[in-house]
Amino acid sequence: MAGIIDLIGNTPLVELTKLNPNPNVKVFAKLEGNNPGGSVKDRASLNMIRSAIERGEINKDTRLIEATSGNTGIALAMIASLYGLNIELVMPSNSTRERTLTMEAFGAKVTLLENIEACRDYAEEKGAAEGSFLLNQFANSDNYMAHYKTTGPELWRDTNGTITHFVSAMGTTGTIMGCSRYLKEKNPDVQIVGCQPTENSSIPGIRRWEPAYLPKIFDAKRVDRTIDVSETDATQMARRLAKEEGIFSGMSTGGACTAALKIAEELTQGTIVFIACDRGDRYLSSPLFG
């Protein structure tokens, strides 16, 4: 009999049947919202906490702290509760109410600040105090190694090694860094494509970082191509995914799907997989589905 932690990973891979513009190309969505915490961040959160415990860096007396835009916080709150750990999550004040309530339901303390940069600064300062531990997903190799160990192998297995393009939103960049490492080892010709917001676009889960806040785990050489996606395109695609494909997800998934379909239009043949990062129910109080 499996516990909740055992249900993290091995998420479904589903083919788009309505939105794909090219019959000679297959486009698949990796449904990470099927993780028990509702997002791709379950994988990294489990690996960061479990690895820190195994290394003796944290125990039940440690006060964990992390800055998050939402999904990582929910995952960390869930996993911390399973391990009996105390955690404070620092989140931008414009985050949806569903996210805050979910974290608190798992027993986490939630602190709201003006933006993600302020959250990161606050978490780094508090994490330096004795008895505290900053998980620091932006610089923690356990973040991307979660995807090297799980997501990448699943993509290779479930496409029978036929994957030609992997598309992911770039936030902390853990997903794209880990999958790139694994997929390039299996086939150096697999194209790794990241998507980021256009200038002045705000897309939850996708970032265009200022140099000072660029995640330390990010290695630009592991991304073959970057596609900019507008807030409007990401929003409209998330709505179309729900209405036309039955995939209920957030704006970052809409952004990744937009990039995947753009690539599909350019190819004569191929197999494209994009990450459907989370579920749409945590955006119901936002304008996305309003």
From TrEMBL:
Domain Tryptophan synthase beta chain-like PALP: 6-278
Reactions catalysed according to its record: O-acetyl-L-serine + hydrogen sulfide = L-cysteine + acetate
InterPro entries per UniProt: Cys_synth (IPR005856), Cys_Synth/Cystath_Beta-Synth (IPR050214), CysM (IPR005858), P-phosphate_BS (IPR001216), TrpB-like_PALP (IPR001926), TrpB-like_PALP_sf (IPR036052)
Pfam families: PALP
Gene Ontology terms, MF aspect: cysteine synthase activity
Group of enzyme by EC: transferase
Similarity section: Belongs to the cysteine synthase/cystathionine beta-synthase family.
PANTHER family hit by this protein: CYSTATHIONINE BETA-SYNTHASE (PTHR10314)
Record's protein name: Cysteine synthase
Taxonomic source organism: Mucilaginibacter psychrotolerans
